[in-house]
Amino acid sequence: MRFPTSRFPASRFPTLKYDLTASLVVFLVALPLCVGVAVASGVPAELGLITGIVGGLVTGLLPGSSLQVSGPAAGLTVLVAETVQRFGLPALGLVVAAAGLLQLLLGALRWGRWFRAISVAVVEGMLAGIGLVIIAGQLYAMADRPAPASGTDKLLGLPALLARLVSPPAAGGTFLIGAGTIAVIVLWQRLPARARVVPGALVAVVLATAVTWLLDRPMKKVEVKGLLDAVQPPGTGAFEQFTPALIVTVVAFTLVASAESLFSAAAVDRLHDGPRTDYDKELMAQGAGNALCGALGALPMTAVIVRSATNVQAGARTKASRVLHGVWLLLFAALLPAALGVIPVAALAGVLVHAGFKLLPFKQFGPLWREHRPEALVLLATAVAIVTVNMFEGVLIGLGLSVVKTAWETSRLHVETEEQPEGHVRVRLTGNATFLRLPRLLDTLEALPADRVVELDLSGLRHLDHACQTALTTWTERHNARAPEEVRLIPALAGQV
């Protein structure tokens, strides 16, 4: 018996088979990262899964970007860890919920597109700084040692950590589990595409878990509470901590999560030919997800470029793939929570070390240094500031340097002095005359002889700010006072100075 074609699910949902396959691949990529980011942030592993579930089931359903996938991101690990250490775990939900509400407001005000105006060098520097802190911190976790609090101390303590690994009694066995995890992930990427359908991070964690079980050695494992037990909504006591310091933290979460999500959206749009991202709607979708994550006391979410690129490359056609990936995470967390308890923390640390390396802009920095050195310096300064100071202030330093660099470059002023046949001196100004170039301009003018006729040619100026205009007027009056009738403006420019 032959059924009409219209009755087959495939005819009603022509893209379902592609989205279903893609969702399974994304789920396998997201699972170890959700757990690893949570453990690295110093919170229960289930909170990372909750954020991944909300990113799929809630943010995945909302309009904005059709193919990018949201969840807990390595880029926020440092900020979350700092927040938990400073304010405590109960305050995390309040911070995340407030950041989500602020994202909703910014999206409603149509500010989403303005996040794209943030300098790429600042974003790359932010990710590089985060990557360095993650790598340094997770190397301690691989050795089953507590990591120092600050990024600087983490880096400075690495030689002592290495010495401990090679001197008895050493933690080399634990460290080798993490190192082996990294090796498997790297080598897995060299296999044929058919083999790489199963993500390397998942394979590495499974192998590390199996090796740990076979060796039967005491090793720190992921602590499991259960999905419902891990939920920690902000209590009334959390609102008492709503201090200026906490408000600054909320702004930091909002800035970093929004910028990372919208930059990810721009990158994902370049990977497919489907509908383009509506940045304001995407910002509101991220805000709705973070508001719910905060209400559940979970980790903050962003759109994650690794999962999003995997989604596109796996053949996803619609947002159904990212929603289904959230369904698989929910089923895993509900039916197999005990599976988390056998995973060695060193293996997850290895996954995070590899993720940290992927945040470092190795390929981008060389061309940037050769072609746009000031941008490269902003990138370096942002990364160093994040490592040595903290996440939020490091980003602010990077933004400040970017603004200064842009102001300096747009205020380029060329001052040319030419001898004229009649014995006059012509000073031609081209570019933008702003206060940043005023010292050089005044040095040139004051070096001119007082007994010569001077022509100021301002026809090449695109902008003359108030400071420069006042300075030119003052210099003209002083020169005229010393040598009457010996300063004149060319006729077409009379009245500008």
Automatic annotation (TrEMBL):
Superkingdom per UniProt: Bacteria
InterPro entries: SLC26A/SulP_dom, SLC26A/SulP_fam
Ranges for domain SLC26A/SulP transporter: 16-382
Pfam families from the UniProt entry: Sulfate_transp (PF00916)
GO cellular component: membrane
Primary location: membrane
GO biological process, one term: transmembrane transport
Membrane topology: Multi-pass membrane protein
Keywords: Membrane, Transmembrane, Transmembrane helix
Membrane-spanning residues: 20-40, 47-67, 87-106, 118-141, 161-188, 245-268, 327-357, 377-404
Localization of this protein: Membrane
Annotated protein name in UniProt: Sulfate transporter
Protein source organism: Kitasatospora aureofaciens (Streptomyces aureofaciens)
Source organism phylogeny: Bacteria, Bacillati, Actinomycetota, Actinomycetes, Kitasatosporales
